[in-house]
Write a structure and sequence with these properties.
The chain has strands at 3-7, 10-12, 18-25, 34-39, 46-51, 60-62, 70-75, 80-85, 94-100, 116-117, 121-125. It is mainly β. A hairpin with an 8-residue loop joins strand 5 and strand 6. It is globular.
Amino acid sequence: QVHLVESGGGLVQPGGSLRLSCAASGFTLDYYAIGWFRQAPGKEREEVSCISSSASDSSTYYVDSVKGRFTISRDNTKNTVYLQMNSLKPEDTAVYYCAVDSPPAYSDCRKAPYNFWGQGTQVTVSS
C-alpha cells in the first residue's frame, strides 16, 4: 500500500533553513516521480519542486520562486525524498506536501499525474 509521510516542518526565521523529508512505504521511490507541493492559506496549491524517476535520469524541476534556494534529492537507501530549503522567506510559509504518481504513468516528474499525497507538514517563516 502506497504511503507517504512528511516531516521536518516548523517555525524558522527569515533567512533560515529547513529540510523536509518524505518517507515512502509500499513502493520503491527510485522508480517513481515525486513532487513537492505547498498550499498557503487562501491560495491554490503550487508545485514547488519534483524529481523524476531514475528512468528519466532523476531530472529535477523547481518553480522560479525557489530556484537557487531549494534543493530536492532522493536517498534510495532510506526510500526518502528530501527538500532542502535555504534562505527562507515569509512567502514560503505554507503546508508542504509530497506526492507520488502511482502506478507510474510518467517517469518525467513534470508530466506525472500525482494521485497519492502525504498528510503535509507546516512551514512557517516569521520573525
